[in-house]
Specification:
Length: 123
């Protein structure tokens, strides 16, 4: 079942919050933990409105963020996990678009780094 992530900058605290909504079973929210943690470490952008990310197949996420992953870039992750960014269809403006583009580049770098690490056989 799909999940939806609401990615919101909090300039007052200087952090990004990520709320995960399960659109099916509530236990599927936990599957988004590695992606949520990655997004929380990203820098802020200049808008108050949340960016929305839909993940159609969240079961893909835990293995994609483990050492030795076969997922090597953001395009592959988006394809395999069925990730869409609904805000892009409404024409994201300014800082949100720049944040999205930079986050996608950083995510590809992170996935490539993970893919080159030896698998954690006991984790």
């Amino acid at each position: 079942m799909p999940i939806r992530l609401y990615i919101t900058p909090d300039p007052g605290l200087g952090i990004i919050t990520v709320e995960v909504e399960a659109l099916g079973r509530s236990d599927e929210r936990d599957l988004a933990r590695p992606l949520r943690d990655f997004l929380r470490r990203r820098p802020l952008w200049g808008g108050p409105d949340p960016l929305i990310m839909d993940v159609r197949y969240p079961a893909v996420l835990p293995d994609a963020f483990k050492p030795g992953t076969a997922v090597v870039d953001v395009e592959q992750l988006e394809r395999e996990a069925g990730i869409t960014w609904p805000f892009m269809s409404h024409g994201a403006l300014g800082g949100a678009f720049e944040w999205w583009a930079e986050t996608r580049r950083a995510l590809t770098a992170h996935l490539r780094d993970l893919s080159q690490q030896p698998p954690d056989l006991f984790g």
